[in-house]
């Protein structure tokens, strides 16, 4: 947040934000959990994580495009903890909005009855996949910034589902998925299989985060694609 007010713009601000947040998180985790391994978007992949019992999966700035645009609040910081095979804790911080969603306080809200399913989608590059799904479901597209913000919009009830088929890295979704689970939401791959983290290749092809009442409709829509 301090960097945003220091005159940096564009790529220079994006890179500085990523670097500063990464260094802060690495220092904090090394100090408080020195025996744990960290997988960060901005750091080298420490392969020791593949035999570790505890691995932190972090995205220092999720949504650098939004971070670099003055006044935007739809970017986030992701911190998740994987332990012995699954996510056990996580937090999605939105510093510009003054909000932190975490597994012990997901800030869940009731879904607003909008009359039709609302799908969270990228504000700058809505994927054709979600646009076609929306047509099938007669759903409303709700544009917003980073992946974490989209996922948290489902938690708070601003949208009903976040469906992504374009692939992401583990740090893009680990913390949002952990928080969404804590809020009682459905999380899975598009085919219904579990989202698995701390894999040798940290690439996840697709995911669904949704409110349970809309899951059946979304599955029916996916079958028609």
Automatic annotation (TrEMBL):
Please name the GO terms of the biological process aspect recorded for this protein, alphabetically. Answer: 3'-phosphoadenosine 5'-phosphosulfate metabolic process; sulfate assimilation
* Protein's name according to its UniProt entry: 3'(2'),5-bisphosphonucleoside 3'(2')-phosphohydrolase
Catalytic activity annotation:
adenosine 3',5'-bisphosphate + H2O = AMP + phosphate
Positions of Mg(2+) binding: 41, 59, 62, 172
Question: Which UniProt keywords are given for this protein, alphabetically ordered?
Answer: Magnesium, Metal-binding
* The species this protein was found in: Leekyejoonella antrihumi
What is an example of a GO molecular function annotated in this UniProt entry?
A: 3'(2'),5'-bisphosphate nucleotidase activity
Q: Could you name the domain of life of the organism this protein comes from?
A: Bacteria
**Cofactor(s) named in the record:** Mg(2+)
């Amino acid at each position: 947040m301090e960097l945003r007010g220091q005159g940096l713009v564009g790529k220079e601000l994006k890179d500085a934000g990523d670097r500063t947040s990464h260094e802060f998180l690495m220092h904090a985790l090394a100090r408080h959990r020195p025996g744990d391994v960290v997988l960060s978007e901005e750091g080298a992949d420490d392969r020791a994580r593949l035999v570790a019992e505890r691995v932190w999966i972090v995205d220092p700035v999720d949504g650098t495009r939004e971070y670099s645009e003055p006044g935007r609040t739809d970017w986030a910081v992701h911190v998740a903890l994987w332990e012995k095979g699954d996510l056990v804790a996580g937090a999605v911080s939105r510093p510009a909005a003054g909000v932190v969603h975490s597994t012990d306080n997901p800030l869940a809200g009731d879904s607003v009855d909008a009359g039709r399913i609302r799908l969270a989608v990228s504000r700058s590059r809505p994927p054709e996949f979600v646009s076609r799904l929306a047509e099938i479901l007669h759903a409303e597209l709700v544009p917003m910034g980073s992946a974490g913000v989209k996922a948290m919009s489902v938690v708070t009830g601003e949208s009903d589902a976040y469906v992504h088929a374009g692939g992401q890295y583990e740090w893009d979704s680990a913390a949002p998925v952990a928080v969404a689970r804590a809020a009682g939401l459905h999380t899975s791959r598009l085919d219904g299989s579990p989202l698995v983290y701390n894999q040798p290749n940290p690439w996840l092809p697709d995911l669904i985060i949704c409110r349970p009442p809309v899951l059946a409709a979304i599955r029916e829509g996916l079958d028609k694609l």
